[in-house]
Amino acid sequence: MRHAAGSSIPQLGQRRPVTFAVVVTLPAPVSEEKSVHRRAFRLSLPAFLFALVASAPVLASVQAPEDRVNASAAKRVAADSPYKLGAGTQLIVPAGWSIASEEASAVTLESPEGGSRVYVYETKQTSADTAVAATWQHFLPQADRKLRSTTPLQDADGWDNQQNYVYETSPDEKRSVTAQAMHRGDLWVVRLIDVSNDVAGKREADLALLREEALPPNFVRESFAGRTAHPLDAARLDALRAFIRDSQKTLNIPGVSIGVVQNGKVLMAEGFGVRELGKPEKVDADSLYLIASNTKSLTTLMLGKLVDEKVIRWDEPVTQVLPDFRLGDADTTKKVQIKHLLCACTGLPRHDLEWLLSPPGAPATLALSILSRMQPTSKFGETYQYSNPIAAAAGLVGGHAAYPDLEIGAGYDQAMATRVFKPLGMTRTTFDFARATRGNYAHPYALNQEAQQVPVNMAQNEVIHAIRPAGGAWSNVNDLLKYVGMEAAGGVLPDGSRYIQKSVLEARTAPQVKTRRDSWYGMGLETDARTGVRMVFHGGRMRGYRSNIMWLPEYNVGAVILTNADSGDILMDAVPRRLLELLFDGKPEAQGMVTFAAKSIETRVASARRSITLPADPAVVSKLASHYHNDLLGDIRVERSGGNTRFNFGAWQAPIASRSTPDGGSLLVVTSPGWWPELVMGNKDGKRTLTIRDAQHEYVFTEAS
Fold first, then answer.
1. Secondary structure of 99-136 as H, E, C letters
2. Could you name the CATH architecture of 18-212?
3. Which of 292, 318, 542, 657 pairs as cysteine with 471 (C-beta 3.0–4.6 A)?
4. Per residue in 310-343, pLDDT tens?
5. Using one digit for the tens of pLDDT, what is the confidence trace for 243-268?
6. Whether 67 contacts 195, CB under 8 Å
7. Start and end of every Beta-lactamase-related domain (predicted)?
8. Residue 464 C-alpha from the chain's centroid
9. CATH number of the domain at 234-601, please?
């Protein structure tokens, strides 16, 4: 079989005697913006490789041994349930999932929707390759999946010699297949995932639970609970600076700005590197970056101020404030209260392509227009589903409540200026792209197909302005430290005055929906307590920009990290980890996260490059029409010049590559730095078509005259 050990799978060198293998099949890659919040300590990947790696491996989990069921009788789990395999591998089965079959060393889990499965297998082998091959043989001996890429993973959570495998799938399958092998002592565990796109899109939290709570026998995570935090003295701050310098170099990030505040005092606010490659101007604490989804926490703070002023209530139905608010589902529309707009708990999925490909200058009402067509794909409050348009509506609702006579976007801008930016002294923070990019700002960069840092076309970022309450703010370390310091101090400003009632502030971090075993999403903010210390945070990702804000409420300490490259992704997790290490004498893991991420990026770029033909195969592009149209996403014009073919989306354009699919077909890959969406060629009603998909939607561009 193609997935068996042998010439089709690179040999990984000598392994310890015992192997734990996990094989996973996920839906096909999703080509959408990942300007989402960050999860603490999670290894992430550059957005330009999202189309390649969206099917990341996820660990399967099962019930505790005493709850084992007959292999022929599937058992649905009512609540998240601990489970152990025969050799002691620890798992958690997500609520609603079924144990389809189980043995002493193997278990099969099935999603609530059916048709998507996670397999976990304990085995003793000589390598990751042989462990994965044994897992395929055990669960799916007739399968014939061609290996697409193999990538080593960082040692973590007690596992070592981890390896990730991604397999080829055809676009029409609308699913993805991955495997992950993990090693501990004399045991290999393999996780094999076979999940449809739509299930992966709406079961992100479940899959993360399966992945992140798969632990070796008797392993206990490090906990900082009950420890006293160290003051961040000069030596500890120098250690943090050294970490940033090394990380910037290792990850080849042009510019990094960072700030730290403790007990109301700014201890660090500085920059490392340059604003623009090839030019000498340095980034500093005043340099502006697009902070993307970090805007959400600022938006929900504005709503909190309006609650404090009794202009709105958290439990107020949205339609009472904004009668034009409509979702594609009338029942869900009735249920949505103001607190639900930023809770990721309404059942509405990611729905980004309609704003990512919107025309320049689209109005703020775009978010409301998109929402009117959005249908829930899970029950209200059932599972975590992150969605930008409804988060954008949160800001519009607040702005309209405060300034009902203004255009809805202008109302939001004014509410943010008067309730957040001015009282906190955030003098440089703005939604105005022209203003932000006139002076001291960090230019965005992403890797191209040759692993070179190249500029990102700012037009790809400007589309966020239409839904700016969800991700359109520009800010800097100096301004964001004022915000983070206030949050860490429970609503008190440096001069001792109270900016907002603590109860209102904390309502934003109250659990609305679970995201992990010990983490949850509130209102535009996530809380992670897996280390025994409650960390509140949010991250931001747009093309060429990666950022994170975080604070520890019980310790009155917080930090801001801003970068101007997609390769800054890992710093969104590694900087908070390094800060915890310095505060609580934690195990030194942050540096390894960065070192390993750099190696992983190199491997993945090479794999992505091998999978495509660039310039695109002439035989493939010769079948293209010159113009395609979709009523929601607009137009694609095909431009040919000097043997190269480009897709012109109006505001921006990029060369295309081609890639063969397992079913013998071809698809086209847009090779824009920071985003590699895939489009499938086809025909409908005698006209040529191009189809682009995200996890739970697809849009068809049809040949136009």
1. EEEECCCEEEEECCCCCCEEEEEEECCCCHHHHHHHHH
2. 3-Layer(aba) Sandwich (3.40)
3. 292
4. 999 999 999 999 999 999 999 999 999 999 999 9
5. 999 999 999 999 999 999 999 999 99
6. no
7. 240-568
8. 16
9. 3.40.710.10
